[in-house]
Amino acid sequence: MDQELASLQHTVNLVLALGFAIGLAFGAVAQHTRFCTMGAIADRINFGDGTRLRQWVLAAVVALLGTQALIAAGTLDLSASFYVGAKLTWLSHLLGGTLFGFGMVLASGCGSRNLVRAGAGSLKAVVVVLVLGLAAQMTMRGAFAPLRVETLDAVALTLAGPQDLPSWLARATTASAGLWRVALAALVAVAAGVWLWRDAAFRGDRAAQLGGAAIGLLVVAAWWSTARLGFVPEHPQTLEPAWPATDSRRPEAMSFVAPVANTLTLLTLWSDKGTTLSFAIALVLGVPLGSAAVALATRSFRWEGFRDAGDLSHHLVGAVLMGFGGVTALGCTVGQGLSGLSLMAPGAALACAGFGIGAALALRYQAWRIEREA
Hints:
Structural class: mainly alpha
Distance between the termini: 71 Å
Largest sheet: 2 strands, antiparallel
Number of helices: 16
Helix content: 55-70%
């Protein structure tokens, strides 16, 4: 038993190290290539520039193709992921995503972007991350939890099996989920490839291309770390299949709302034996360090503070909306937007629609404020 527990701890330590390394890489790439979901939407709506939007789509496509290829090859089994559960909380996905999208515009970026900005010297981003984490804690188990659980999550569809699109189509047709997986992945690859490369500006932007591809591959690496390396077929204590390095005790990829909340919980309850370091927490800790390394190396590190009370209030409101919305939607623009979409989960598509709607509304609100103050 002692030898088995020691082997298990060794596996957990490897997964934690990979989580930290993936976080470092994400922070470095996002800082160097300006990868940002909010920025991508704002560039497109405000300036008609779709380069960063295409970068984000490329990341999503690479994540989807890489993840689906590993599933089809039998290397990964992600059927236990909470993204593909049989219960589709469609209202939570859509409303939570909309609130998150509105909040990320007010807060100058989503959770991952604010972690990146914090590493580059933004004290505004540090405040946003702390408040986002607190709001997420309140939504998971605190004062906001009853509203989420008893009202929003109660509106749901219970499916006959996993909600991912290949499984859904397999139940409705005679074709297997594996066949649908290959067909849908091929369709996405062709359609996205045509759309991405028809834009001359994006074709000429190597940084955007490499950044998007790298972020997508990091999502795949995260899935592999937790679902392959971190999978224990028979836990020595429970004798059941387990993923001991993750907070959910299921396969996880990248996400930055609940993990920020869990990071705060670990730091504030460090001596509590019930709180332990996890893959997602290691990921969160790595992001600002990777960003800081690039910012210092390129001499782009700058201290940044709030402009005035109005600037502070908007960022605080945005952080609260992201904390509540991200937990309610079961993920942020990376959690649902990249990780969830890589599994072709309808819930992820609904959340992404919400992100876009919320961001567009917030950008219109900002434009209205500027016109009123002019």
